Structures are given as structure tokens and as C-alpha cells.
Amino acid sequence: MPRPSNPVKLLASTVRLPDEALEQLIRKLTEELSDRADRRKQSENSSWQEEYRKCGKSNCWCVHEPVGKGHDPYYYRSVWKDGKPTKEYKSKRKKPA
Ligand SMILES: [Zn+2]
Fold first, then answer.
1. Do 76 and 89 belong together in one domain?
2. Distance 67 CA to ligand 1 centre (A)
3. Cα of 68 to ligand 1 centre, how many Å?
4. Of 21, 54, 72, 88, which sits 20 to 30 A from 32 (CA to CA)?
């Protein structure tokens, strides 16, 4: 069976919803889309943050440090990837521009 190349037509033929339901779906999707756009915008504006890490060695000094303290910081920021916010890391010690 040949597939319609138009994704909208494909979706409409697959879903087989009454017009009102389809309309509602589109409204929801539009809301979701603008929600995503907002979140994407937020993550694009995010600046580099420091993150101190524990190395995991049981005999290291960092074991005794409180949560959030540890070795030299990694720098990370929130970026948008595959439709969700993801942490992007830069190498430690040097703060990225
Ligand atoms: Zn350590």
C-alpha cells in the first residue's frame, strides 16, 4: 500500500477521528508545541553552571564533602536535544566563553 507522502494526510487517515476530536487534538498539539518552544527558548538562554563532582573512590577526600561539593567543577548548561532539555558539558577547570 503506497503511503501518502504528506504527513498530515497520513496522520488524518490513520487516526480517523471525528472533526471535533481532530480539532481538539490539533489545539492540544498547538499548545504542546508552544510549550516546547518556550522551554527551548529558556534552555537556549541558559548560562554555564558549575557542577562539582565526586570521583566515586571510597578513599578519596571528596567522600567527606557535602553534597554538591567535590573536585574541580565541570561546566554545563542546559541545551535542547531531541525534544527535551539535556545537559551539555564542557571540560573542567576552564569556564567556557
Ligand atoms: Zn574524589
1. yes
2. 13
3. 13
4. 88
Q: How far apart are alpha carbons 76 and 82 in whole angstroms? A: 18
Domain limits at 27? 7-45
pLDDT in tens, the chain (97 residues): 566 688 888 887 887 888 899 899 899 999 999 998 888 887 777 788 888 889 999 999 999 999 889 998 888 888 888 878 788 888 666 666 6
Length in residues, the chain? 97
Whether the pTM exceeds 0.85: the reply is no
The region, left, alpha or beta by phi > 0 then psi within -120 to 50, assigned to residue 68 is left
Residue 38 and residue 52 share a domain: no
Give residue 86 CA to ligand 1 midpoint distance, Å: 25
